[in-house]
Amino acid sequence: MACYNGIVRRMVSLPRNLFGGFSRVMGHGIDFRGHGRRNPTIPPSFQLQTPEDPISNPEEYNFLSTFEQQYGCLHPFFYACSFMEALKLAENEHKFLFLYLHSPEHPFTRSFCRETLCSELAVQYLDANFVCWGALADRGEGLQMASMLRPASFPFCALIAPAAGESIAVLQQIEGPISPAELVEILQRTVEEQGLAFGSLRAKEEEKIRADRQLREEQDAAYLAALRIDQEKEKLKSLSSKERVQKPAEATPNKANNDKFWNNSAVKQGKVIKPSTTRETQHKEVANRVKDPQATQILIRFPNGERREKSFSSAEKVQSIYRFIDSLGVPGIGNYRLVSSFPRKAFGVDQMGQTLKDAGLHPRATLFLEPL
Length: 372
Prior knowledge:
Blueprint: E1 10-13, H1 24-27, H2 59-71, H3 83-92, E2 96-102, H4 109-117, H5 120-129, E3 130-136, H6 140-149, E4 156-162, E5 167-175, H7 180-246, H8 255-269, H9 275-287, E6 295-301, E7 307-313, H10 318-328, E8 336-341, E9 344-347, E10 364-371
Parallel strand pairs: 2-3, 6-10
Antiparallel strand pairs: 1-5, 2-4, 4-5, 6-7, 8-9, 8-10
Helix pairs in contact: 5-7, 7-9
């Protein structure tokens, strides 16, 4: 039976050619859902489309087609994407990644797939608790993973978590045949022992996200209130200038008349009222008005920690944000691009012509300046 020597805690560095964004399958718009399987929850940031042009032997579908031709469609939900995209999915869903390397010619493979991997117990447990990714062990990314993890025998499974830098944390390796109950027991034990540590990190990350969101909302509200006040000041100044042009002969009330006016007003209302107090009240009323529905508030964060805010019209282009940043003359800024973090999305040359609304930045967004 399977050789199980406890939890494997080790770091494995990933080759750079695994870092390349979406796989060929995603680049051509192929559906993540595979062949006739049920559809688990998929993050909204991933577009599921039907391919217009067929791809000859995509690596990810070679595994799925090979597996399903021999063992049918009842199996764990294997995402048809690159390893790095599967790892990112697991990170976003706060789950571990279950990796399976398939060696069709190995003598233990047939019994493991039919009796264990495709059993109802294993399928339900894996689909509910992990992001599953599989590959053929003798080609493509499957061969790369096999060279890094160096399995001593097949079937080979591993439980993986993302780690800092260009590395992954291998929490568990399972090699050789194993029953469904033994597989679930090993995975449960690993999750219980490692879940608290990863759960604590996730809680800290979520708390930081909530704090950042609250701070951003408070800053947005304060900025818009100040903007409304400034706009009202400019409007009053403009009206005052027009009145002076239209009535040049009218003299400004002297100090005595002005004092008399405000004293009379105070007597009538039973309290002292100053002109400055009236203007402050007016500004507060302006700040409390309904926000301009076309205004888009952009908060820009620089690599040195500096922040700048700017209000744009939702009809303006993404290029307007780049022009604003360039006009600031911030030292040390060379080539760069703007990215959002939740979800991560880059706004580069291809997005320059999009309006802020079409780009998903309306009514407010935080963008990070990422040097190239």
